Amino acid sequence: MSHISSVDRSDSAGPTTTIDASHTVTYSDATQKCFAPESWASDSSDNTRVTKLPFFDLKTQFQSLREEILAEITAVCDAQAFVLGPKVESFEQQIAQLCGCDTAVAASSGTDAELLILMAMGVGPGDAVVTTPFTFFSTAGCVARVGAKPLFVDIDPATMNLDPEKLGKFFERECRESPDGLATKDGLIIRAVIPVHLFGLCCDMDGIRELCRQRRIPVIEDAAQALGAKYPSKNRVERAGGMSEFGFFSFYPTKNLGAFGDAGMAVARDGEFGRKLKILRNHGMDPRYYHSEIGGNFRMDAIQAAVLLRKLPYLEQWSKRRWEIAQRYKYAFAKFSRKIMLPAEPYAAQLGSEGHIYHQFVIRTPARDSLREHLEEQGIGTEIYYPVALHQQKCFAYLGEMKFPESERAAAECLALPIYPELTDQQIDRVTDSVAQFFN
Ligand SMILES: Cc1ncc(COP(=O)(O)O)c(C=O)c1O
Asked: What CATH class is the domain 67-314?
């Protein structure tokens, strides 16, 4: 079935992979480890295979919270105060507290939160911002929208996050010191680095922060997928979004904490910068109808804040359940370690279940497309995050041709399986049985 010839990938850092003529790929290393309580005797007697198992299911969660959420929405309707206001402020305070930041500024989406940060930093033409090519489009799209150049550094294949080693090499080989800061060879000033905590796993922030600190480059964490995720830094346990100068989150409905529409949050270490974010969020208006800067309409609706506040107390237990589901998947797939690469949990020794919040459970296999087809036939929904690395997107063709082999491989091999707190053990078994059927 597979058209893949034998390939040796031992040239890459991290786990090595070898592919043979069937859909067998050998992934070495510890990425296949999982926590596996004895009590998980797999019950594969589920015979209800006619029902569809969707990739995500927002309805089940809503049903369990229906009354309390509708009461919150009704309260906003009764007040007829729909934009910003006390609910939004209260949500800002809770997020600032959760991630350990001075200021949180609620925004209309994660994209707008990133845009706000870049605008408040004054990033624009003549500037460059470094990020990963293996992320959702908006991470780099916002950089281009403010007139700066997105620059890419490849990922670590084990975690699929920005690789600090490659970032260091990029700084050393492709950049030089200038009076205005670190610059590219063609004179663009590197104004920021945006690591992305992809799928709910924090980047190697000690490495990234140290490289940036030495060069006085601010870090903006794209924590859109990682609200609440922990990271064991050298000195203490830190939280996604709160580990750098700036960070942002998305509350898109399918996120671990999802709104009833679009919503996002920008966070900053410096309170004064937070004030600037708030002014720019509202057209740069300060005081009312006086504009000394050009901002935009990036405000959060009160209904979104009310829903998110109601859901926030459940976030930890939901993320824990996602982690448990991930362990079940990993346990079931361990026997296919030559065919499937499983998500890494580099912080498991220090953080256990808190080292990954599994916004997505993404496996890698060269047989990705046929596996996806097989699962589709079984009624199991999957998704590809992301089929095209950003440097290969048409709209970035103007940046010139670039090669990021690890991101390109990840884009060709990755497949996200259903993972949401409401997934039942029977449904999990159905996914693992179907995957096993394919590889057997
Ligand atoms: C990594 C990443 N960055 C940024 C965003 C943008 O967030 P939003 O969809 O809320 O604009 C997303 C959304 O999915 C994302 O996954």
From this structure: alpha beta
